[in-house]
């Protein structure tokens, strides 16, 4: 499964790397709403919640559907600005229909809306559908959706004020240090882009991002089958400190593609591809292969030893071992006339965290 961004014929200057205060604030808000996704920020999140006045904490929870399970597209600027205030001004320029539709995707759930879909602001059926979806997700979501549809201007003003309060409460203090890390990352990315081209720059973003062999498409390894195009608009890549481990992609119709990627920590492991995770899960889904792994966990064994231990034929054991090797869970080494198979314990141990990382990104 992949998300593909068509960049055929796109001038190189329309592929941009830039920092965004609003996108980083959104990442911080997601950490506060879903701390389980970001254990490295547990202490920071606890300190922020402890310091927030009760009224401000309630306002954050009231609007958290804009950044909790997924993030509203208007929170990731296609044209990042130097300050949060300037980016919020740009959000204010978005028309009500576009803003409300994007907000309802995160509030109500469901997929991104088609360009030709009727607006819930003007179409009774679309409005009823949006409210039904919000109701199914809980009373808070339903109340937020009702207010948004009844008075978009008031809700938009309240959301902006909430974000401005966040800037005063914790974002401004954190942004100073974060901005320095983002600037360092951007220098590296832009230098790679100029010296080695698009492919090298994309490879440095994440092991989950690559340029297709024909050079006409950016391929993002995510647990979804989606496609969008950057014709005439370009693609913006926004680094994030607080966004790790997520790889966020704005891909809805009508929106310029934007990718928010985590700034690498010193010496991190490259993300394991979704294809590899799937291959390993499929390899472990057979009871015979699990029995073989049980034996191999005690030490290296030959094919004949495994066949004898489990009363299986040599060809059958060989077929199962081949599946496990392709999945990277075994290695085979020849010792004289014998080939011994060894369990790759680190890969097997990391499978759980690799699966979570693939789902979260």
Key features of this structure:
361 residues; alpha/beta; four-stranded mixed sheet
Quickly give the structural class.
alpha/beta
Averaged pLDDT, please?
Answer: 90
User: What Rg is obtained from the alpha carbons, in whole angstroms?
Assistant: 24 Å
Order of helices and strands: EEHHHHHHHHHEEEEEEHHEHHEEHH
The N- and C-terminal alpha carbons lie at a distance of 12 Å
Give the fraction of residues assigned to helices: 40-55%
Largest sheet: 4 strands, mixed
Unreliable parts: none
Strand order across the largest sheet: 3-4-1-5
State the total count of DSSP E strands. 11
| Shape label | elongated
Which band does the percent of strand residues land in? Answer: 5-15%
Number of helices: 15
Tell me what the structure shows.
Helix 3 (54-63) crosses helix 8 and helix 12 (303-310) crosses helix 13. A 4-stranded mixed β-sheet has the order 3-4-1-5, covered by helices on one side. Strands 2-6-8-7 form a 4-stranded mixed β-sheet. Helix content is 53%, strand content 13%. The radius of gyration is 24 Å and the shape is elongated. It has 361 residues and is an alpha/beta fold. The mean pLDDT is 90. The longest helix is centred in the middle third of the chain and has 45 residues, at 152-196.
Produce a short descriptive summary:
The chain is 53% helix and 13% strand.
Would you spell out the secondary-structure blueprint of this structure?
Blueprint: E1 3-6, E2 15-17, H1 21-33, H2 42-51, H3 54-63, H4 84-92, H5 96-108, H6 124-137, H7 139-150, H8 152-196, H9 198-205, E3 209-211, E4 217-220, E5 226-229, E6 235-240, E7 248-250, E8 258-262, H10 274-283, H11 287-296, E9 301-302, H12 303-310, H13 314-326, E10 330-335, E11 338-343, H14 345-349, H15 351-360
Parallel strand pairs: 1-5, 2-6, 6-8
Antiparallel strand pairs: 1-4, 3-4, 7-8, 9-11, 10-11
Helix pairs in contact: 1-8, 3-8, 4-8, 5-7, 6-7, 7-8, 8-9, 10-15, 12-13
